Amino acid sequence: MIIVTKLQINDKGGIAQTVHYYQQTCTCGKWKIERFSCSHAIAVCSYRGDNPLSIVNTVYTTVTYRQQYTSSFVPLPHVDYWSESDRKIKADDLTHSVHRCRKRSNQFHNEMNIRHPGESRKFL
């Protein structure tokens, strides 16, 4: 189903979005990327007479939220009780570099940067 957004005062809107209701996708991409139904999908849901909660991903339901916190959390012990590890962290020498000279300029030179022989330097 094609949904056209409302034209706003600042000349935004009026864009057509295609909603594939059963595949749960929309051309705006929000439904697929965020797994949260976009306004276009809710408009189709309203047009069909369906409950908007039926198209919400289970990640965003209250049941899932409550299940996240039903188990108990085990706090970390104090640092004094941590066991020593035999693992050592070593830096990657390929990504580490030390610059010992003047930083190279990223400027693109053009005819204004060329100094001709016999011309003195101009300091501004």
Automatic annotation (TrEMBL):
<dbReference type="GO" id="GO:0008270">
    <property type="term" value="F:zinc ion binding"/>
</dbReference>
<dbReference type="InterPro" id="IPR006564">
    <property type="entry name" value="Znf_PMZ"/>
</dbReference>
<dbReference type="Pfam" id="PF04434">
    <property type="entry name" value="SWIM"/>
</dbReference>
<keyword id="KW-0479">Metal-binding</keyword>
<keyword id="KW-0862">Zinc</keyword>
<dbReference type="InterPro" id="IPR007527">
    <property type="entry name" value="Znf_SWIM"/>
</dbReference>
<feature type="domain" description="SWIM-type">
    <location>
        <begin position="17"/>
        <end position="49"/>
    </location>
</feature>
<protein>
    <recommendedName>
        <fullName>SWIM-type domain-containing protein</fullName>
    </recommendedName>
</protein>
<keyword id="KW-0863">Zinc-finger</keyword>
